[in-house]
Amino acid sequence: MKSDPVYLDYAATTPLDRRVAEAMQACLAEGGTFANPSSIHIAGRASAELVTRARARLADLLGADPNHLIWTSGATEANNLAILGAARFRAHQGRHLVTMLTEHKAVTAPFAALEKEGFEVTWLRPDAGGLLSAEILQAAIRQDTQLVSVMHVNNETGVIQDIGQLGEICRERNVLFHTDAAQSVGKLPLVLSDLPVDLLSLTAHKFYGPQGIGALYIAARPGCHVEPLTFGGGQERGLRPGTLPVHLIEGAGVAAAIAAAQMQEDLAHVTALCAQLMRGLAGIPDLRRNGAAQDTYPGILNVSAAGVEGESLLLGLEPVCVASGSACNSSSGESSAVLRAHGLDDSLAQSAVRFSFGRMTRPADIDFALQQYQCAVQHLRSIAPIVAVSP
């Protein structure tokens, strides 16, 4: 009986690439580059040069100007800085905002907080496949709308929104467009200099970098600015003060450089793994794929099995590490808000499992996960009645 974990939860966090770990260790070792980059002495200047190099590497990955990137502690902070900061900066022009019901909580929570400050938020629902149409967004934008936020790749289903088309709609109406790109940076090609994106959030630990470091991209155009959320020193243009974590920034920069160099290789790898997983799941009756079959990132696959209770299914899958559709609400027992916004009832949403995989996943890992999943579903259905999936 296999007892070692089989990690298929890459959408939650990715393993640290060995090359990234080595670069970070070099910073932390005796004689390494660890000094405060705000210091003017020789050690501080060495750290400042490292930060500049890492920022340039991340900018190369994004097709952006390095001067438009602000270091943060991750995508959650970047989302909060973008959403709260932009809405408050433009509040004198209007207090209407637009986002989706299928966003990550790091986006929905700041919008909910802004509602308490007197802002009005329009919460858009996707179609059954999880996609937002241009027509729906067009209709939602008003004369007083100041900010729209739509995630690039959904963290639960892998559905890819057309941020180029959606951003162009916002640009034509002089509305700021923000996207949470935590699940796409380093995995899918992005050239921000060619995209109508004003604000973009990311985190390094989703593309084999360290946890605790991310960035916010802020386009250089009139009216595109954010108010700071914290105050102190003048670091990061005064928008995100505090001593910069040099070793984490070095890790993010190295991870970005690796991602840029082998993105197509990584994408081909997860595409093959997804096809392998889909073939193995095809023989299971009453199984539903959640999210569009097209317009999706192949490193994430979300499925629901009718007649199966989700928490029991996760326990039956061990030692395979996956996420349930209700992972963000596990303490409350609520089913996934994302999947309910797709039109799933609570029963199907509760039975959802998200498989996510990446650079270090092997075909043998997929085979083992398939075996565990098939056995777990069969066992749970044998002790409970099967409820047919609605067409």
Gist?
The protein is α/β, with parallel strands linked by helices and 391 residues long. It has helices spanning 18-28, 42-62, 75-89, 105-116, 134-140, 163-172, 246-281, 310-317, 337-341, 346-350, 363-382; strands spanning 6-7, 69-72, 96-100, 120-124, 145-149, 176-180, 199-203, 214-218, 287-289, 300-305, 320-321, 323-324, 352-356.
What does this 3D model show about the protein?
The chain is an alpha/beta fold and 391 residues long. The chain folds into 2 domains: 130 residues, Aspartate Aminotransferase, domain 1 (Alpha-Beta Complex); 241 residues, Aspartate Aminotransferase, domain 2, CATH 3.40.640. It has 11 helices and 13 strands. A 7-stranded mixed sheet has the order 2-8-7-6-5-3-4, sandwiched between helices. A 4-stranded antiparallel sheet has the order 9-10-13-12. A two-stranded parallel sheet has the order 1-11. Helix 4 links the parallel strand 3 and strand 4. About 2% of the residues have low confidence.
